[in-house]
Design a protein that fits this description.
The complex is a heterodimer of chains A (111) and B (114).
Chain A: E1 4-5, E2 11-14, E3 19-25, E4 33-38, E5 45-50, E6 54-58, E7 61-66, E8 71-76, E9 85-93, E10 98-101, E11 105-110
Parallel strand pairs in A: 2-11
Antiparallel strand pairs in A: 1-3, 3-8, 4-5, 4-9, 6-7, 7-8, 9-10, 9-11
Chain B: E1 5-7, E2 10-13, E3 19-24, E4 31-37, E5 44-50, E6 53-56, E7 65-68, E8 75-79, E9 88-95, E10 104-105, E11 109-113
Parallel strand pairs in B: 2-11
Antiparallel strand pairs in B: 1-3, 3-8, 4-5, 4-9, 5-6, 7-8, 9-10, 9-11
């Protein structure tokens, strides 16, 4: 079992729709959770961080965390073509200081 | 500088050669991480430093890989006897505090072993 799992996609949504990206993790001790966006040929950039159960909203982005079920998700409202990228889920593992990434989900927002 | 700086941006080397990749983190960031990313994959953890010491090197694939951070700032990833399978983008990231703070990534070094 991989430490952090994501559906590789591609996930295609029409412009203006809600995109839902999911991630599961195996380390019950994980405490910090992050979503990164990566455009083709570029480095990952931080979108959201979440540390406690529930929802966290920032503009069009909402991160959701459920530690009991060991999943974290990212919702993107009013999706724009510029949101087309690979979204990486990252989770602290190995005692808390190592950040482990999933393989990423490719999102395509279509006009 | 304002962000994490990695040099060179591209490196092409022949199989069997030695390479060094450099990372200059954000000023004041004590934690520094190295990752390797292959096409279509997420970043794969290699090693992280807290200050000058390697706090976790469990991701280094074998003894051909080594990294140092002698003064707690700039880090160098060293790869001996390179193999074609080492070809990837090597990413460096830093954060103010390991584990809690998000990572800030550099632009990466694309290593190609021919």
């Amino acid at each position: 079992q991989k430490e952090v799992e994501q559906n590789s996609g591609p996930l295609s949504v029409p412009e203006g729709a809600i995109a839902s990206l999911n991630c599961t993790y195996s380390d019950r001790g994980s405490q910090s959770f992050f979503w990164y966006r990566q455009y083709s040929g570029k480095s990952p950039e931080l979108i959201m961080s979440i540390y406690s159960n529930g929802d966290k909203e920032d503009g069009r982005f909402t991160a959701q965390l459920n530690k009991a079920s060991q999943y974290v998700s990212l919702l993107i409202r009013d999706s724009q073509p510029s949101d087309s990228a690979t979204y990486l889920c990252a989770v602290t593992t190995g005692g808390g200081n190592k950040l482990t990434f999933g393989t990423g989900t490719q999102l395509k927002v279509e006009l | 500088g304002a962000g994490v700086s990695q040099t060179p941006s591209n490196k092409v080397t022949e199989k069997g050669k030695y390479v060094e990749l450099r990372c200059d983190p954000i000023s004041g960031h004590t934690a520094l991480y190295w990752y390797r990313q292959s096409l279509g994959q997420g970043p794969e953890f290699l090693i992280y430093f807290q200050g000058t010491g390697a706090a976790d090197d469990s991701g280094l694939p074998n003894d051909r890989f080594f990294a140092v951070r002698p003064e707690g700032s700039v880090s160098t990833l060293k790869i001996q006897r390179t193999e074609r399978g080492d070809s990837a983008v090597y990413l460096c990231a830093s954060s103010p505090t390991a584990g809690v703070s998000p990572l800030h990534f550099g632009n990466g070094t694309r290593l190609t072993v021919t």
